[in-house]
Amino acid sequence: MAIVKVLEVIASSEKSFDDAIKNAVKEVSKTVENIDSVYVKDMKCHVKNGKIISYGAICKVAFRVNDKR
Asked: What stretches of 2-59 show up as alpha helix (H) in DSSP?
């Protein structure tokens, strides 16, 4: 039986929501193996002087846990 864990992370980008989500996966991949999926829980933008300056995404990253027994 596979065990799946979920990490909730907040990622950002100055380019787009897509880039923010890719940044979430890139950062989690540095310390976690076997990533299966990413669920985008929420998105937001920061605005300054009437212009979007950054995009943010709250992501749930699911990964399989290795059973090393």
From this structure: 17-29
Question: What pLDDT, in 10s, does the model give residues 8-48?
Answer: 999 999 999 999 999 999 999 999 999 999 999 999 999 99
**50 and 10 Cβ atoms separated by less than 8 Å:** no
Give the fold, CATH level 3, of 3-65. Dodecin subunit-like (3.30.1660)
* Structural domain spans, the chain: 3-65
**Distance of alpha carbon 26 from alpha carbon 14, whole angstroms:** 16
Note the pTM of the prediction, 2 decimals: 0.86
